[in-house]
Design goal:
The protein is of the alpha/beta class and about 675 residues long. It contains 26 helices and 14 strands. The chain has four domains: about 170 residues, P-loop containing nucleotide triphosphate hydrolases (Rossmann fold, 3-Layer(aba) Sandwich); about 70 residues, no CATH class; about 230 residues, no CATH class; about 140 residues, abc type-2 transporter like fold (3-Layer(aba) Sandwich). Helix content is about 55%, strand content about 10%. The longest helix has 30 residues.
Length: about 675
């Protein structure tokens, strides 16, 4: 609970308690008083609860019980330097200070003036250097400058001088003293180096989650008759009886009272969203990995998938033994006329072989039956065809007797069954070859057409589809877009969570919703580029068919819906993940699993009934099916089938949003990573 107090106290903590999931108390009945316009040195060993106490004061964590009173009107009056650097690696020092100054709603002129002042005090003579190229000490100086850029009334610094040289530390402490004297600034400095806080106006010794001693440095040293704060600290630790006597046994249960941090975050600020958006633009424009993932890799996948997925299989070796004629004769002559003509030289075996050559099969001629046995063990040959010496005469005889010719005169053996797809393609192309011969015979000879005419097909949708990759273009588009958007979203949000950026910007009043909105805008822009390039490649370079301009507009709308859905899923992944490896596994398995079971590798209808129901109602499958219906069938969003799938997608989207809302109650501190 945070309340306002009397004028002479800046911060007061009363009987604070805090523990994490393991039940071990981190803060245990702590009481603390920080006067206005003073330097308060909070001293204690690592792990005693100093950082947790500061987080509770700042509002990024909530106490289990107790009272925190803060004398300030707005969260913008507080400056905070965390123990970790918590700065964006792809920003320069100057850009970092300008970014935080803008979040604090400072004018550009004031920011520049304050940067100039801090540059001299903290020796920040590397304004145009990226944060990632700075040393540890330089990063901490920049982090300290961020907390002081807006000249706050209360400054909270978590071990600010770690890794700095003694001369610079002394200069910083002198600057703190000047801030206190000139501006009545209240400064809280935590450290585990006791000798550092000699210059503090008030010192608090912290041990096992509580303040065991709190007074002016000289008063503490006088009490223990020593001139060393370190000795005084050790003496106070040993006074366990005094510590027990000072413990307050009453507790205060936290309630939903008015909180100055919550009030500051209640209304979404377009200024903060725009500031975050500009910062994100700078970061992603310099992040080669992000550029590769969002632009280059999807283009590569689009090219590879169009060349390698679903296209007709070519240059398969098929061995044949033709006892009817020599293979060179089939290559050199183009036969015409009717096979019943007396002067006809038309050979049916050549008709079949020439048709297979036209389909880009590699034909391997055998010279004798002795070679057939060796072909069986040749893994490079997929099938063997045999044409007897009287093949054409046998066909003539079947036609004369009005039988179903070609049924027994043609011999095919498959020497390899390792590839199911190539096996069936060869069979279907042989059928095409025979059908081709039938049609030629009908056109060149007087034959009973009822005997020879094959089943006629009337294609209603997808007349221009020539290969399987053209029939799954919608699913490929949706699947790749879903994966890369969800992966980039989860990676960005996890990165902000890991480096502490979410906590640090939240001190300025930024909400998690504003962070999400700013990144969603970035994702939309990236997706527009991604979609434009992929549509250009798929429908123009690779000549996939699309029925109309209206279909293209509807497709773009579905892809926008895909971006929204995948963005929501990326937020879920970031919320539950603790590492980038978890992000990769969750996003890849979720999106690729839906693609594979959604008809990309094999028709859904081949699955068991229960599996079909699941596969047909996943987000990627539904969005991919809608895209295919739009592209291949020219259906609009008002079509009953499309509308039905659209309603399912909308319901799934609401379920994902509801899951995010419930997740913050299931998982405490959803956007804070405990180290």
């Amino acid at each position: 609970m945070v309340q306002h107090i009397e004028d002479n106290v800046a911060i007061r903590v009363i009987n604070a308690h805090k523990s994490y999931n393991d039940g071990v108390p981190i803060i245990n009945g702590l009481n603390m008083t920080v006067p206005i316009g003073k330097i308060y040195g909070l001293v204690g060993p690592s792990g005693c609860g100093k950082t947790t106490l500061l987080s509770s004061i700042l509002g990024t964590q909530m106490l289990d019980s107790g009272i925190i009173e803060i004398q300030t009107k707005s969260a913008l009056d507080i400056g905070y330097m965390p123990q970790d650097v918590c700065l964006d690696q792809y920003l320069t020092v100057h850009e970092t200070l300008m970014f935080y100054g803008s979040l604090y709603r400072m004018s550009k002129l004031d920011i520049i003036n304050n940067i100039s002042e801090l540059r001299n005090i903290l020796e920040l003579y590397f304004q145009n250097t990226y944060i990632k190229n700075l040393s540890g000490g330089q990063c901490r100086r920049v982090s300290l400058a961020v907390s002081l850029i807006h000249k706050p009334k209360i400054v909270i610094l978590d071990e600010p001088t770690v890794g700095l040289d003694p001369i610079l530390c002394d200069r910083i402490w002198n600057y703190f003293s000047n801030l206190v004297q000139d501006n009545k600034t209240t400064i809280i400095v935590t450290t585990h180096y006791i000798q550092e806080v000699h210059q503090a106006d008030r010192v608090g010794f912290m041990r096992n989650g509580k303040i065991i001693q709190e007074a002016e440095p000289h008063s503490i040293m006088s009490r223990y008759n020593t001139d060393s704060l370190e000795t005084a600290f050790l003496e106070s630790v040993n006074e366990t009886t005094a510590v027990q006597a000072s413990r307050q046994l009453h507790s205060f249960t936290r309630t939903k009272s008015k909180d100055l941090f919550k009030r500051a975050k209640k209304i979404m600020s377009f200024h903060r969203v725009f500031t975050l958006f500009k910062k994100n633009c700078l970061i992603f424009s310099r992040d080669i990995t992000y550029f590769f993932l969002v632009i280059i890799l999807p283009i590569m996948l689009a090219i590879i998938s169009n060349y390698s997925v679903g296209s007709s299989i070519e240059h398969i070796n098929i061995a044949f033994l033709n006892e009817e004629t020599n293979n060179s004769i089939c290559k050199q002559f183009n036969f015409h006329g009717c096979i019943f003509d007396k002067d006809s030289k038309r050979l049916m075996s050549c008709e079949v072989l020439n048709y297979l050559r036209m389909l880009k099969y590699d034909l391997v001629e055998l010279n004798s039956k002795k070679q057939v046995n060796s072909i069986v063990n040749d893994s490079s040959v997929h099938a063997f065809l045999y044409f007897p010496s009287n093949y054409t005469r046998l066909i003539q005889k079947d036609i004369t007797n009005l039988t179903h010719f070609f049924s027994n005169q043609f011999k095919i053996s498959h020497t390899s069954n390792q590839n199911y797809v190539s096996f069936h393609q060869i069979n279907s192309h042989i059928d095409f070859a025979l059908d081709h011969i039938k049609k030629n015979l009908i056109s060149n000879c007087t034959i009973n057409k009822k005997m020879t005419t094959t089943i006629e097909t009337n294609i209603i949708y997808g007349v221009n589809i020539k290969a399987r990759n053209q029939s799954i273009v919608g699913l490929l588009l949706v699947g790749t877009l879903f994966y890369f958007t969800s992966f980039c979203t989860a990676s960005f949000m996890l990165s902000e969570k890991l480096n502490g950026g979410l906590i640090r910007t939240s001190i300025t009043g930024v909400t998690i919703i504003e962070v999400m909105i700013s990144f969603f805008i970035i994702q939309l822009i990236s997706s527009v580029v991604y979609v434009a390039l992929n549509l250009l490649l798929i429908f123009y370079l690779f000549d996939n068919s699309i029925e109309s301009t209206e279909s293209l507009i509807n497709l773009c709308f579905i892809l926008f819906l895909t971006v929204t859905f995948s963005f929501i899923f990326g937020l879920i992944v970031a919320g539950v993940s603790q590492s980038s490896l978890e992000v990769m596994f969750l996003t890849f398995s979720y999106s690729s699993g839906q693609e594979f079971f959604g008809g990309l590798m094999w028709p859904i209808e081949a699955q068991p009934k229960i599996m079909q129901f699941i596969s047909k109602n996943t987000p990627v499958t539904l969005l991919g099916q809608i895209s295919n219906d739009i592209v291949l069938k020219n259906w609009t969003l008002y079509n009953s089938h499309v509308a039905s799938d659209f309603v399912k997608v909308f319901c799934l989207l609401l379920l994902h949003i509801l899951f995010i809302y419930c997740l913050k109650y299931i998982k405490k501190d959803l956007w804070i990573l405990r180290k």
